[in-house]
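Interim report, section 4.2 (structural modelling).
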Amino acid sequence: MNEERELAISPIVHSSVQHNSQVVSNIRNLTASLFGVAAGTLGLESYPGFLFYLVGTLIVSSLIFAFRTDGKPTEYFHQPLGDLWGGDVFSGLSGFVLTWTLFYGLVRA
Amino acid sequence: MTLLSTTLNAVGLIFLTHAVYSTHEHTTTFPSAPLPLDITVELLFSTLVLSAGIVFASPSLKPIQWSRWAGKIEREGRQSEGTWTREGEEVLDEGDPYAFLGLDGGIGGKGEGRRGFWDVRGKRQEYAEWVKSGGKN
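Predicted structure of the assembly:
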């Protein structure tokens, strides 16, 4: 009820929300494949590989936080924790695994 | 911003290609030796540079609160999105959704500021003054 009133007072522009989440998901997909290349070339296996991906996404999130939102994520994301820091982390995972296995096979095996 | 992102991406790609090639050469020569530190550092550095380049190359975010978003449009007007159609027309981002009302015309101007809006009282007063003045002009 409180949030509803809050939204009635300061409404949200849906096209901007869509645009922002699309930008974040684009960045996530591109960087996920990039981290896959790095993980496969480094020869990481099993849990260290996934840990590498999580650390990489955290770095990318902080890059977005610092250079795209200028340190004010509430202005661009309705829920900064879910939409910026955790947004599309698991949808990029498949691209990560794809390039990870590909480059592990090409370079290491 | 585009020059910076292009430079970062180009430098990152060169280093990444070099690092992956070096790793390939190293593992074919010494299959069981661990990766040297310089290749690892180069790989991680190129990954960082490339991800920074990708973030810089992405289009800027738009404010989600209506007031901030509308204020930005008011201040800056319609901006180019950095893309052009095949006919060579510049693609602009979204503008003021109420621009068709023409409200801006009424600020400091002689117009009523709204299309299809007729100031009845103003017209009545004008008519009364015209009658008072004896129906001249």
